[in-house]
Design goal:
Elements: E1 13-21, E2 32-40, H1 49-74, H2 85-107, H3 116-122, H4 125-133
Antiparallel strand pairs: 1-2
Amino acid sequence: MTPEEIGLCGCWQVLAIRRETLDLCQADAKPTVEVAYYASSVTRAERDAEAMCALVRGHWSAIENGTHYRRDVTLGEDACRVQDRNAAAVLASLRNLANGIYELEKERERTSVDTLKSWCQQQTFSSAWPLLKR
């Protein structure tokens, strides 16, 4: 099928990536299969299937090693025992906000602190509020 046939005009490639996972914590676990679809405006001449798969792996690697790592390890998201879904969503948003503000401050060279955790420990409401207005 072409991208136009499935309603994705302007799209040059559609990738279907099959992922097979196995829960290593369960001795008798059976593999689960998931198919993920990606649409791209990059042509085959620009990136072949192997290069597109490398881009997808790189994207997920950056997420796992970037935001996800910071939220889990630095901000203790996995250790958080909040059970209310709405409260958990609010906390996740606040963690993302803190991460985003830190990254902006670092990019703009407005902080010399080199870790998110150290930066968060230095913040107070009165120091963080002006950062939200910028």
